[in-house]
Every structure is written in structure tokens, then in C-alpha cells.
Amino acid sequence: MERAKLRQGEQEDAAAAAAAAVAGGEQHSLNGHCEGGRSKVARCRESPGEASGSGARTPGQSGHSSSVMESWKEERTRSVEDNEMSLPSIAAAYTTILRGLGEDPQRQGLLKTPWRAATAMQFFTKGYQEKIIDVLNDAIFDEDHDEMVIVKDIDMFSMCEHHLVPIFGRVHIGYLPNKRVLGLSKLARIVEIYSRRLQVQERLTKQIAVAITEALQPAGVGVVIEATHMCMVMRGVQKMNSKTVTSTMLGVFREDPKTRDEFLTLIRS
Q1: How far apart are CA 223 and CA 227, in angstroms?
Q2: pLDDT in tens, 83-100
Q3: Active site amino acids
Q4: Residue 171 phi, psi dihedral angles, 5° rounding
Q5: What's the 3-state SS for 42-102?
Q6: What pTM, to 2 d.p., does this model score?
Q7: CA geometry: angle at 158 spanning 157 and 163, to 5°?
Q8: CA distance to 136, 175, 204, 206, per residue, from 225 (Å)
Q9: I need a surface site. Which of 1, 23, 63, 192 has the fewest CB within 10 A?
Q10: pLDDT tens digits for 146-168?
Q11: Considering Cα of 62, then 63, then 65, then 71, what sign does the dihedral take?
């Protein structure tokens, strides 16, 4: 009888300990801690990649570093026909927005606003209709020139992909040719294609540099963007005079401090 009671007591203690472990495991998992000896419940809350140790990432984790950049030969994602087909639905969406803001889309001043806004947005994002290879194919020339080429103060207008408000500023581009040069106006065209998309400035800077690198195979490329973000000026912190500066240095612009310094000095002069 005493042995039976002892076994029953041990079983009850074990059950209590297991329950405590499960509760502790759930708490640790919910708080995002990674401690040893977690329960099965805690392990079940991990992503499949973490649980298996395979390193697989769940959607939404930052595993996109290798796919962020678009190739300079990338196909268009939108055509003129797409614009025509989507215009009515975009205009209807703007009508809904106007109503949601407390306005009357039928009053005189707003009757054509949804269509105007829809066509304007398509123009602001016309970079989706173009691809770099169409611009550069007839403008790459063999030339025995190996000194730095710089085009600075290229006007840039884009749209913040987080708030759909403007970004505007200037782009400075420099590259060190490797027996091939690019028509100067094409550098501005590259800026136009990538900036006329929904963007963040960091990605825009790198896209321009990578496109030039893939097209010309130069010894190095440097891109600097100075821009004002209306999402910081008109809303949020409302800092009127703030500017964001981003840079991408590839090849000798990254590896050689003297080359990088020469480029930075020249764009500031």
C-alpha cells in the first residue's frame, strides 16, 4: 500500500513538472527567447527551418538579399496595354479613397480627380514599363579610355513605397571605364527607369550601380543620391530640411580609397 502511494506521488510530481515545463516553454517561445531544454510546445512554435536546423527561412524573413537586385536585362512588368486595362480600376479605387476621406466625388472639383490621379500614378511609376537593355543597347561604345567619367546633379523623382508620397533629389554617378563607355544621357535614363517605380532610396542607389556594372563591366562604379522624402517632411517627424544620402561603391570605388575619395571630391566641387 505504501509503495503504491509512493508511486502515485511520484507520478503526480512528474505530471506537475511536465505541466510547468510546457507553461515555461510557451512563455519562452512567445517572448522570442532561445533557451535550451525547451518543451515540445515551444519547439512547435519555431519556424520549420529553425526546428529542423536546415536554415530555411519563413516568408517575411530577410532572405531576399540575393533577389533584391534586378538584372539590367529584366523584362517589363507592365505594358501600355496593361495601363489601359487597369486605369478604370485604379480610378475606382481613388473614388473610394475620396469617399473614405469624407469628400464627395460627385462635386464639381472632384468629378475628374480619380481619373487624373490614376493617370498621374501610372506616369509616376512608368519605370515598370521600361527595361534597361532597350536604352543601352545602341549606346555602348568601344573606346580606349580608362579615366573616371562622372555625371552629377541628375534630377531624380520617385515614390516612397511605404507611404506613396514623393522622393526627390539629385543623383551623382561615376565609373572607371574598361575599354567601353556609355552615352552620357543614358546614365540619366537609367536613373529615370529605376526612380519611376515604388522605391526606397537604398535599393534605388544599388540598382543604378548594378545596372551600369552589368552593362559596361567597368573597373568600378560609384553612385551617390541626396534626396528629400516627403514622408519625413509632410508627416511623422516633419523635419523640413532633412536630407537622406545613400551611396553604393563597386569595384575599385570600394577597394581603392584614393579612387573613392577622388569621386567624392569631384561630385562636391
Answers
A1: 13
A2: 999 999 999 999 999 999
A3: 160-163, 201, 229, 231
A4: -120, 135
A5: HHHCCCHHHHHCCCCCCCCCCCCCCCCCCCCCCCCCCCHHHHHHHHHHHHHHHHHHHHHCC
A6: 0.71
A7: 135
A8: 22, 15, 9, 10
A9: 1
A10: 899 999 999 999 999 999 999 99
A11: negative
